[in-house]
Design a protein that fits this description.
This protein is mainly alpha-helical. It has one domain. Involved in the degradation of specific anti-sigma factors.
Amino acid sequence: MSVLPILTAAIAPGAALLCYFYLKDRYQPEPVSLVLRMFFFGVLLVFPIMVLQRALVLGLGLGEGSFLFSFLASSLPEEFFKWFLVYFIIYKHTSFDEPYDGIVYSVAVSLGFATLENVFYAFLHGSDFSFLMWRAFLPVSGHAMFGVIMGYHFGKAKFTAGGERKHLLYALLLPFFWHGTFDYILAVTKTYWIWFMVPLMVFLWVRSLLKVNRANAKSPLRMVTREEQVKI
């Protein structure tokens, strides 16, 4: 398989999911330039995280596929740095003006990371189309789900009175938990993973879509729209 088809197959899942969650913003879509910037920052995260993960594996002697590897070397650095980017770049930005915006930006960062990671894996297994489909269904989609969970709680932190610290903590801990669980299940169920991963992905998708609807329902812009409709 030539370079262009491999590259297209690797980028397409992340791009499609980003478009999907971007278009779910019902009331005031975010600036495309800012969403793409966060996606690009997510891409750049791959390199320092790879170095850190390698250092953790060598320094702590974590074996790939172990429980500690799944949570400490894989999930923790990835979700922490995604959280760090969203918090310090977007959380107090003027464009973050409704709860759903947290989901858009967190998903953008997560999918930026997942897309470059997918490109690397695609070039290693470029002739295996089934592998690329597996990557699209599981790791790329999984990163999107972790981004939804993170972004939902960023939105709750910013727009729920008295709950900021709690939801900022949830924005980190819940994606960390689900990401670690995801990786560990894949590691220990090499031959029968489908019996665990399909129910987990269905659960995460249903949970994420519910959070999308809840975030949109709590938008202050929704109330403005309703008032305008009443006046008309």
